[in-house]
Amino acid sequence: MEGTPDLYPSRVNGKETLSPRLDPVVYGGAQPEVPHSLSQRDLDTFDRQGFLVMNDYMPEMVAPLKREITRLRDDMAGYEELYTEPDSDELRTIFKPFAYSDLIDRFSRDPRILNKVRQILGSDAYLMQSRVNIKPAFKGKSFPWHSDFETWHVEDGMPRMRAVTVWLMLTDNTEHNGPLYVIPGSHHHYASCEGNTGEKNYQQSLKKQMLGVPKPETMEALLDDKGIASVTGQAGTLVFHDCNLMHGSPDNIANDPRSILMFVYNSVENKPVTPFSGLPLRPHYLSNPDQRPLQAVESLWPLAS
Amino acid sequence: MEGTPDLYPSRVNGKETLSPRLDPVVYGGAQPEVPHSLSQRDLDTFDRQGFLVMNDYMPEMVAPLKREITRLRDDMAGYEELYTEPDSDELRTIFKPFAYSDLIDRFSRDPRILNKVRQILGSDAYLMQSRVNIKPAFKGKSFPWHSDFETWHVEDGMPRMRAVTVWLMLTDNTEHNGPLYVIPGSHHHYASCEGNTGEKNYQQSLKKQMLGVPKPETMEALLDDKGIASVTGQAGTLVFHDCNLMHGSPDNIANDPRSILMFVYNSVENKPVTPFSGLPLRPHYLSNPDQRPLQAVESLWPLAS
């Protein structure tokens, strides 16, 4: 796959630009015969907005997943997959939890999620990345505007826009605890950023992203007639968002943490090539070398109970 | 006034505590004969919540005040009354704008404001402090939870809770541009904080407040069954908030600035004594030495037009 053309150049010491997306958002269509699949109306919403919120969709998963994550915090102490807040020792992220938890591994293959993912991507999918994000009460820091795809393209070599992020709210996500802000419709545009990626940029960017953050002028142009929307809902709400949706989040000064469990599904027809930055591959917990198609599981409950 | 008892000790190297408020919130009552006065219902809301939002109350003032503030930014360049953002040179605050602007001086004595202030305080009032706060788009920083009264008591010697803050929204204040977060009902409690005030603490605290910020445990106890409310509204909305209302704000990652013009009115029966910190007085632009009762003006328009 050497020599794959770079259709979405960024951080190549050029000027910042906005250009049209060259790929579909939804690769499949309605499949009424497939259980747990999305309606054409939901697919159209996802196509137009770049995200879909399924309120209170999996409330029964919250308690067992939270118990499992509490266990992982202890069992994984000292692991490289754990990241803390920029200004404190407070746990911010657990990467690759599926590798250390049968429940989370099986949950990532729940047909209620996986059948929708396959439908959006129009193909089988593999789990490119997974994480638990915890935004602590009072001191959770903000995250600037960015498109995940921009990073995955430049730093991981994801060639096209054919990946979807799915996340479950583990606590209520409210207007006040640093919710995800998104720009509906922004995924139709590609923001090519200034700068040049340094080696091991992820060690910095996972704490505080500096590269791949569009400048105010670019954000103004992108926002144009679009607004900002907060993605809020009660614990158990499931969210799908396109890989190129522009998003960010303010800090959390409320007294309740904002926690989510996130999976990034990439199409098996969109496997990474040599990173367009020319730099070495990022660690396995950021771009999973296991790219076998996921198989749906029938039931979680023997493990979740 | 030496020897005034300290009814609200804080930063005296003790443990953090919550104690009941010892003063009324509303000192006066309904005065149907006074133009622009508040109804008993509004007064009751203010008493219970600690704040009152008058949506779209003074839309005609927005444009002339913004023009005036643009002028002040230039005319006051280099003045000590100007404060910038902690991490940049962007203008954050203009203190004492009434001293440099006839329009703002007269606006602070608009009977639509002043008659309500007198009613709440049950007395004449003087202008203890005034400022323009600008929270820039994309990079406006958050402000942690605090009660203004705690600072004014410790650092300025304000003896009792008998002051009210009034502010006009100069831009739309939305859920997304770093709005004021308040805890309705928190003004009925006094949070005594840990720490000890250093000399010229204001030089730090006006950029990033460290002292007078209750610890998470105290905030949990204070929040108890209360929630967090965002104070939002369109430009021209007027807000009254009690001096002891616990408030803070998240950072502004949106593309529109949040700007307000703020006045702090203190009762002439509540004039400052020697600061309870024992430290020297803060500058004139933080606690105004001119404590003569304000006289309402009849009309702003010769100046505002």
Quick description:
The structure is a homodimer of 305-residue chains. Chain A is an alpha+beta fold and 305 residues long. Chain A has helices at 40-49, 62-75, 102-107, 111-121, 148-156, 201-205, 216-223, 301-304; strands spanning 17-20, 51-54, 82-84, 91-95, 125-135, 143-146, 163-169, 180-182, 189-192, 229-231, 238-242, 247-249, 258-267.
Please provide a written account of the structure.
Two copies of one chain form a homodimer. Chain A has 305 residues and is of the alpha+beta class. Chain A has one domain: q2cbj1_9rhob like domain (Jelly Rolls, Sandwich), CATH 2.60.120. Chain A is 22% helix and 22% strand. In chain A, the strands form three sheets. Chain A has a seven-stranded antiparallel sheet. The first copy, chain A, is globular and about 50 Å long. Chain A starts with 16 loop residues before the first strand and ends with a helix. The model of chain A has no long low-confidence stretch (mean pLDDT 92). The interface between A and B is medium-sized, with 23 and 23 residues.
What distinguishing features does this structure have?
305 residues, Jelly Rolls, homodimer, globular, 8 helices
- Helix content, binned percent of chain A: 10-25%
Order of neighbouring strands in the sheet with most strands of chain A = 2-11-7-13-5-4-3
Order of helices and strands of chain A: EHEHEEHHEEHEEEHHEEEEH
Average predicted confidence as pLDDT of chain A: 92
Task: Supply the number of structural domains of chain A.
Answer: 1
Strand content of chain A: 15-25%
Question: How many whole angstroms does the radius of gyration of chain A measure?
Answer: 18 Å
- What is the CATH superfamily label of chain A? q2cbj1_9rhob like domain
The quaternary state of the protein chains shown equals homodimer
**For the report, how would you describe the main beta sheet of chain A?**
7 strands, antiparallel
Total strands of chain A: the figure is 13
User: What's the CATH architecture of chain A?
Assistant: Sandwich
Determine the most extensive contact between two protein chains: A-B, 23 and 23 residues
Unreliable parts of chain A:
none
Compute the number of helices of chain A.
8
Which topology of chain A does CATH recognise?
A: Jelly Rolls
- Structural class designation of chain A: alpha+beta
Name the CATH class of chain A: Mainly Beta
Cα shape of chain A: globular
Pfam families (chains A, B): PhyH
Protein name (chains A, B): Phytanoyl-CoA dioxygenase
GO molecular function (chains A, B): 2-oxoglutarate-dependent dioxygenase activity; iron ion binding
Cofactor (chains A, B): Fe(2+)
